[in-house]
């Protein structure tokens, strides 16, 4: 066999292999990226991070205060500014007197919020913070997930105890009001369709 004949047979074989590859390529399975399967066990949750602005969270907080604690009847509201501020009125000597409480918010490791009292004013009268907080704790109906500690001059908001529809759970991740960096983690149950 001559050199030209051998070269022709090799070239023909390569062309046939190439044509066979082109003919079969569309029918070969494509490479798929590896992803986690959507198999869930009972009790599994899917974590989602949600961020909010102060304005949106103000609306949500005050909606829940009206719904859960009848804040409208008691004439108080919460506003997120550079601090967490509670504005309202208290009865003193048979009259309504303005009340302002300012808190510095902190996120606990467990995802709940600790609000430390920074400023308290009732009208212009200086009254000890523990006394006023004890009065608020005894007098005003608060949601079951809000705990007042007069001795520590703080309020704990147990976000992890909030009850949402569809068994959603939440915890705070960041609550920086000055930078408007407010983030929560929502835990969506895997069996949310039920």
Structure overview:
- The protein is of the alpha+beta class and 194 residues long.
- Helix content is 27%, strand content 36%.
- The chain is built from 4 helices and 9 strands; from the N terminus they run αβααββββαββββ.
- The protein has a 6-stranded antiparallel β-sheet. A 3-stranded antiparallel β-sheet has the order 1-9-8.
- The chain is rod-shaped, with a radius of gyration of 32 Å.
- The mean pLDDT is 81.
Please report the distance between the alpha carbons of the first and last residues.
77 Å
Radius of gyration: 32 Å
Q: Report low-confidence residues grouped into runs of 5 or more.
A: none
Strand order, sheet with most strands: 2-3-4-5-7-6
Could you say which overall geometry the principal axes of the C-alpha atoms support?
Answer: rod-shaped
SSE-based structural type: alpha+beta
Number of helices: 4
Secondary-structure element series: HEHHEEEEHEEEE
| Residues in helix, % | 25-40%
Name the quaternary structure. Answer: single chain
Mean pLDDT metric: 81
What is the β-strand count? Answer: 9
Largest sheet: 6 strands, antiparallel
- How large is the share of residues in beta strands? 35-45%
Strands, helices and their partners?
Blueprint (H helix, E strand, L loop, with lengths): L2 H22 L20 E8 L1 H16 L1 H4 L1 E5 L3 E9 L2 E13 L5 E10 L6 H11 L6 E4 L4 E4 L11 E8 L4 E9 L5
Antiparallel strand pairs: 1-9, 2-3, 3-4, 4-5, 5-7, 6-7, 8-9
Keywords:
194 residues, three-stranded antiparallel β-sheet, 4 helices, 9 strands, rod-shaped
């Amino acid at each position: 066999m001559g050199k030209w004949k051998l070269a022709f047979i090799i070239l023909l074989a390569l062309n046939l292999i190439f044509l066979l590859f082109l003919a079969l390529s569309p029918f070969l399975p494509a490479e798929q990226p590896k992803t986690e399967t959507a198999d869930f066990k009972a009790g599994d949750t899917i974590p989602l991070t949600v961020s909010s602005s102060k304005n949106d969270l103000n609306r949500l907080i005050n909606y829940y205060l009206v719904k859960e604690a009848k804040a409208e009847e008691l004439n108080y509201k919460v506003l997120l500014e550079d601090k967490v501020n509670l504005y309202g009125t208290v009865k003193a000597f048979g009259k309504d007197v303005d009340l302002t409480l300012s808190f510095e918010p902190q996120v606990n490791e467990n995802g709940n919020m600790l609000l430390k009292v920074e400023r308290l004013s009732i009208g212009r009268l200086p009254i000890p913070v523990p006394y006023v907080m004890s009065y608020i704790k005894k007098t005003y109906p608060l949601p079951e997930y809000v705990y007042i500690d007069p001795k520590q001059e703080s309020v704990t908001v147990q976000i992890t105890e909030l009850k949402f529809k569809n068994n959603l759970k939440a915890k705070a991740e960041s609550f920086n009001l000055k930078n408007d960096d407010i983030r929560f983690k929502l835990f969506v149950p895997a069996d949310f369709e039920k």
